[in-house]
Amino acid sequence: SSSFSSSSPFSSLSVDTQNLRKQIDELSTFSDAPAPSVTRILYTDKDVLARRYIKNLMGLAGLSVREDAVGNIFGRWDGNEPELSAVATGSHIDAIPYSGKYDGVVGVLGAIEAINVLKRSGFKPKRSLEIILFTSEEPTRFGISCLGSRLLAGSEALAEALKTTVDAQNISFFEAAKSAGYAKDHDDLSIVFLKEGSYSAFVELHIEQGPILEEEGISIGIVTAIAAPASIKVDFEGDGGHAGAVLMPSRNDAGLAAAELALAVEKHVLDSGSIDTVGTVGILELHPGAINSIPSKSHLEIDTRDIDQERRNDVIEKIFQSAEMIASKRGVRLSEFRIINQDPPALSHKLVIDAMQSAAKELNLTHKSMISRAYHDSLFMARVSPMGMLFIPCYKGYSHKPEEYASIKDIANGVKVLALTLAKLSSF
Ligand code: HGY
Ligand code: MN
Ligand code: MN
Ligand code: MN
Questions:
Q1: I need a labelling partner for 217 at 20 to 30 A (CA). Which of 113, 341, 366, 409 fits?
Q2: Which residues form a coiled coil (predicted)?
Q3: Closest-CA residue to 93 (of 153, 150, 36, 135)
């Protein structure tokens, strides 16, 4: 078994920051938006190029690489006792439209570099170490967040739903997956589900996507819980008509119904009694979308979260009641009110928290416990393995926009803590 003690070879953990910075920049070029923005959507050509880039780096790190039916990618370093359940780490590389180049990427490129750091230090793991690149953490193409990790965590409902899911261009999930070289001979995605006990621990390195660490000058965030996300799709339908000829009293404007519901989302969230409740209408589409035509259809997508799931569910109920009230008041039809996901929060496991804290201490890095208001693949890995997350500061907490930035120094700190955490978790 591998020896691991405080006088371990880890005092000399060295991160190849030059290479890591170059990789982050190179990966960001696989994008459907001009720099500095990044757009990288599931199964597009740019996604496939980015996947190939990561698989190559995994190979160069001496990992054995495999992919599952939906494109979750696994890079494995066999330990001295490969029959034991492995320790896993990873994140995502898909990017929502016009976003940045660090969200998810830090946890994938950083994980590969953490393996290289451990190899350079002469460490040999007892338990195998596995890096996971989760397919489609972002909800952009098929409307469901954490698609790959939900399936790994055994979501029967999602495996079923994907059989009939299409994207905005009416391309089916399976057609898109096949175009990227996946889902060849399967239409039963339960083959993606992880076997019981696949991992003894899972850790994800990620930028904070919030301002706390930078404001307080702290190097490492030890995530203790991940907030409970939910998303809802809503459609209103009215008669539409000519913007000049139809007088106001005889209108049933689907666009105004959507606008009123968006403001109702804000009201219910603000009235929840807690600053931890958030709500966003990030998508609002009007049909036919002509200045002189009264909207006959409107489509909104609502994202609402809280660290307390009861409070969040109460907000969802109030949003539904508002949608019905607005529809009847305005004489429009509420033709769809579909809750896409309504997930519980996840707690990090003490085993992983202790390993992350002692790693940060040994590296003399300031650290603090905190919750994650963003969701991550870790939210679902927590269902099948003890989970933990490491945060590093990011510029003004910016994320999901091109100004997103993390310094290579902060990234290197995260990589070192991740490397040491993996070493600890794989040694017993
Ligand atoms: O939206 C989220 O919380 C994640 O960054 N996709
Ligand atoms: Mn994101
Ligand atoms: Mn992310
Ligand atoms: Mn719709």
A1: 113
A2: none
A3: 135
Closest to 380 in 3D by CA, of 55, 219, 164, 155: 155
Determine the distance separating the centroid of ligand 1 and the alpha carbon of 153, expressed in angstroms. 18
How far does residue 137's CA lie from ligand 4's centre (Å)?
Answer: 21
**Closest C-alpha among 68, 70, 93 to residue 195:** 68
In tens, the pLDDT along 48-82 reads 999 999 999 999 999 999 999 999 999 999 999 99
- Helix, coil or strand: residue 99: strand
**371 is written with which tokens?**
């919750």
CA atoms within 13 A on the CB side of 9: 13
Under a CB-based contact definition with an 8 Å cutoff, are residues 233 and 193 in contact? no
Q: What angle do the packed helices 350-362 and 408-425 form, to 10 degrees?
A: 120
Count of C-beta atoms within a 10 Å radius of residue 329: 11
Residues 391-420: tens digit of each pLDDT? 999 999 999 999 999 999 999 999 999 999
| 164: three-class secondary structure by DSSP | coil
Q: How far apart are CA 247 and CA 250, in angstroms?
A: 6
Q: Using alpha carbons, select from 400, 346, 410, 396 the residue that is nearest to residue 94.
A: 400
User: Tell me: the pLDDT tens digits for 153-187?
Assistant: 999 999 999 999 999 999 999 999 999 999 987 78
302 CA distance to ligand 4 middle (Å): 12
Q: Which ligand is closest in space to the CA of residue 235?
A: 4
- Give which of 124, 12, 182, 177 is closest to 426, Cα–Cα: 124
26 vs 29: CA distance, rounded Å? 5
Tokens of 285: 């589409």
Supply the residue whose CA is at minimum distance from atom 5 of ligand 1: 374
For 350, the 3-state DSSP assignment is helix
CA distances from 176 to 38, 48, 70, 162 (A): 20, 11, 10, 11
Signed CA dihedral, 361, 364, 369, 375: sign only: negative
Q: Is 343 touching ligand 1 by the criterion CB < 6 Å?
A: no
Residue keyed to tokens 């990427």: 105
Q: What is the mean pLDDT of the chain?
A: 96
Q: Residue 206's closest CA among 1, 375, 6, 396?
A: 375
* Cis peptide, bond prior to residue 229, ω within 30 of zero: no
Q: Position 27: which residue type?
A: L
The amino acid occupying position 191 is I
